[in-house]
Write a structure and sequence with these properties.
The complex is a heterodimer. By secondary structure, chain A is of the alpha+beta class. Chain A is 65% helix and 7% strand. Chain B starts with 7 loop residues before the first strand and ends with a helix. Chain B has one domain: Response regulator (Rossmann fold). The chains are: A alpha+beta, B alpha/beta.
Chain lengths: 610, 143
């Protein structure tokens, strides 16, 4: 049966069983506490019932308070004189004993929102604060009752209050964590070696504490032993770092138990031996009367009680804080690891999704291109028929038609030719997307020279000056397609120009080192895109049209202005640039000129040639 | 040397209108040759191999030139081009591709697969004359 089943079965008990169980255990713990009284003090250094009570309300809630009240009443009745005053005192004290865990839990729930306060260092401090609040109420109530019913004199009020308070706190802080943690679900992985380690830890801790607190005066130097109580702390740290809050609380309880038992047996560093004290501190001159010696002994015992209580409190709190801090750290580490794992998984998933989407997009793009290609091919065939047959009509029957009829046939032919050129543009566009790029090291200066050669007549006709500030580089790209880009941009720059002195500038700058030194015909820095530009002093483009110049069949001017055209040139240019992994954009001032920029990446010529 | 007038011109094209245009251009160019029309690749291959409806050799004399459309249903022109140019007996027959595309890449591809010349559709008199002129040295070599 694992612990979570224990928790479930405990909370499934009917209320009266809870109450009865708490009453019995509380009473038994009180009787046990009384046996731990230090000699001559009438007070226990720890009061285990306070731990039982607090653990009970932490686990089962406020509703178990009657069990605490009954257990406390019976225990006090047993301790106090069987008189009316004793009975009344029992009643009074039992109110405080009941209030202690109830108020403590109330404060704890105000301070800590999680159910288990022992898994974070910050919450352990709050747990201590809540315990202190409860214990202050119980001790104040208890001492006041004892004094009011004249069981202790006024002179002892302060001492009774302090002993009560510290005893309750020690009992609470030692026992409540152990009991509470025993009922918590634990995911600790008890491997064989861990179990062995735990056994070794507890055995060592018990032996060491026994050695430090036991009576071994005959064997070892006493003065050294007196100041070694703190040596148990590393053992508690071991428990905290290697195990959890539960094991650490158990370890602290073990140390406390051994220390208390030994001290109540009049040994250990907190129980100064009168013989030693008289020999070391009271020498040389005082001659003590029997009464004075007895008083003195009592005071020493009260002090040793206080020291033991503070020791127990110190190790309980230290252990709990250490365990809380370590648990917190482990949790965060685990959370971080989980997060990392989830992140990695999510990255992988997202990448897969993205790849799928990309593949789908590529497929649909391909299908669209195929469609455009086939459709244009098939569309052209009947159109050709219309064109040729209207031609035959003109050729064979032209003389039988009047001028108007001939003009209409001519219009028909012109329209079919226009339709054909539109379809041809569509075809060209889809072919740019469809066919593989024939990439090779291309001397763009040569490409440009060829284009300008073919345009030389029309350029001269229009009086356009061509400016090339520096020779274009050699780039790994599709010679024909990139040539189309330049031809198209230059033709546009020439067509849409009405300046008296027309010019077109074709240049480039390297994306990373645009200082011009990298120009010439040498290879450019790899990886940085080269930005080309074709600049003119033409008619310019209004800003509102800048976005639509790349749209298919979009013309900004009337059909027959500026030499006509189908309006697909820039769409094709954009597609070519994009297929090279580049980007195209433009800057324009209406009436002053336009500059088209496009980038071409220095391609993987090494990768393919090697 | 022009195309010998007794040689058959084999015209392979699925489109009647395109065929009409081609026939008209041939006639206008003054070529007296007999034109045989096949409307797809299978029929064309039957003709050159004298199979099926062309099994009688007298009915299907070896063509002096093939005018071949590429985009046809079924066995298309590229396949016909491939078969003819890979056949030891037939590969000397000049093939003129009828194409709708004037794209350089397509033209290069035609020549790479063995075409001897091309005409951009619709065939015009000038197109026919130009294409046939290109082939003249082929015939002079063969005869």
């Amino acid at each position: 049966m694992n612990t979570s089943e224990v928790v479930r079965s405990v909370s499934a008990w009917p209320r009266f069983l809870h109450v009865a169980a708490v009453a019995v255990i509380y009473y038994a713990a009180a009787r046990l506490g009384l046996t731990l009284q230090l000699p001559d003090t009438n007070a226990s250094p720890v009061w285990p019932p306070s731990g039982i009570g607090f653990a009970a309300v932490m686990l089962a809630g406020y509703r178990v308070w009657p069990g605490i009240a009954i257990g406390a009443f019976l225990a006090n009745l047993h301790t106090l004189p069987s008189t009316a005053a004793g009975f009344a005192t029992s009643c009074g004290i039992c109110v405080g004993n009941t209030l202690e865990p109830v108020v403590g839990l109330f404060v704890l729930r105000r301070l800590v929102s999680v159910r288990n306060p022992l898994e974070r260092a910050r919450n352990v401090f709050r747990f201590v604060a809540a315990a202190t609040a409860g214990c202050l109420i119980a001790s104040t109530n208890g001492a006041t009752n004892l004094w009011a019913w004249e069981i202790i004199p006024s002179a002892l009020y302060r001492q009774a209050w302090l002993t009560w308070c510290l005893g309750d706190m020690a009992g609470l802080l030692i026992l409540a964590p152990v009991i509470f943690m025993l009922f918590q679900k634990s995911d600790f992985d008890w491997t064989r070696s861990r179990t062995l380690e735990a056994v070794a830890l507890f055995a060592l801790l018990a032996a060491a504490t026994q050695f430090l607190f036991g009576d071994y005066r005959d064997w070892i130097d006493l003065e050294l032993m007196d100041s070694l109580a703190y040596a148990v702390v590393p053992g508690l740290a071991w428990a905290a770092f290697r195990f959890g809050p539960r094991e650490t609380a158990l370890a602290a309880a073990l140390v406390s138990a051994v220390a208390i038992v030994n001290t109540s047996n009049e040994s250990g560093p907190f129980y100064p031996q009168p013989a030693r004290i008289s020999s070391q501190q009271l020498r040389p001159t005082h001659a003590l009367s029997a009464t004075v010696a007895s008083d003195f002994k009592q005071r020493l015992r009260a002090e040793s009680l206080l020291m033991l209580q503070i020791f127990v409190l110190a190790i309980a709190i230290t252990a709990a804080i250490l365990a809380g801090a370590v648990t917190e750290r482990n949790r965060s580490e685990q959370a971080l690891r989980d997060l990392n794992a989830t992140l990695e998984l999510r990255v992988v998933e997202r990448t897969a999704e993205l790849n799928q989407a990309n593949a789908a997009l590529e497929r649909s793009n391909q299908e669209l291109d195929d469609f455009a290609y086939i459709a244009s091919h098939d569309l052209k065939e009947p159109l050709r028929g219309i064109n040729t047959y209207s031609g035959y009509l003109l050729e064979d029957y032209g003389d039988k038609l009047d001028a108007e009829g001939q003009s209409k046939l001519n219009t028909l032919q012109r329209l079919t030719r226009r339709m054909e050129s539109l379809i041809e543009s569509l075809l060209t566009y889809s072919r740019v997307g469809q066919t593989e790029l024939a990439v090779q090291d291309t001397n763009l200066s040569e490409v440009l020279a060829e284009i300008l050669d073919s345009l030389v007549v029309v350029l001269q006709e229009r009086g356009v000056e061509i400016r090339i500030p520096q020779p274009l580089p050699i780039l790994y790209c599709d010679r024909v397609r990139v040539g189309e880009v330049f031809r198209n941009l230059i033709t546009n720059a020439m067509k849409y120009n009405e300046s008296p002195e027309k010019w077109i500038e074709i240049g480039f700058c390297n994306g990373s080192a645009g200082d011009g030194d990298s120009g010439g015909n040498g290879a450019l820095t790899k990886g940085s895109p080269t930005v080309f530009h074709v600049r003119d002093n033409g008619i310019g483009i209004r800003e509102k049209h800048l976005n639509s110049v790349f749209k298919m069949f979009k013309r900004l001017n009337a059909r027959d202005q500026y030499g006509g055209g189908t309006g697909v040139g820039l769409t094709i240019v954009k597609k070519i640039v994009e297929r090279h992994g580049g980007r195209i954009w433009l800057e324009s001032t209406f009436g002053e000129g336009t500059t088209f920029f496009f980038t071409l990446q220095q391609g993987p010529s090494d990768a393919t040639s090697s | 040397m022009p195309l010998p007038p007794d040689q058959v011109i084999l015209l392979v094209d699925d489109s009647p209108e395109d065929r009409e245009a081609t026939l008209r251009a041939i006639k206008k160019a003054g070529l007296p040759n007999l034109v045989v029309w096949c409307e797809d690749g299978d029929q064309a291959l039957d003709y050159v191999y004298q199979r099926g409806e062309y099994s009688n050799p007298g009915k299907a004399p070896r063509p002096g030139i093939i005018l071949l459309d590429l985009n046809m249903p079924g066995t298309d022109g590229r396949e016909v081009l491939d078969v003819v140019k890979n056949d030891a007996n037939l590969k000397t027959i000049p093939i003129v591709v009828l194409t709708t595309s004037s794209d350089d890449r397509d033209i290069d591809a035609f020549f790479a697969s063995g075409a001897n010349s091309y005409i951009v559709k619709p065939a015009t008199v000038e197109g026919i004359i130009k294409a046939v002129q290109k082939l003249e040295n082929l015939w002079s070599f063969r005869f």
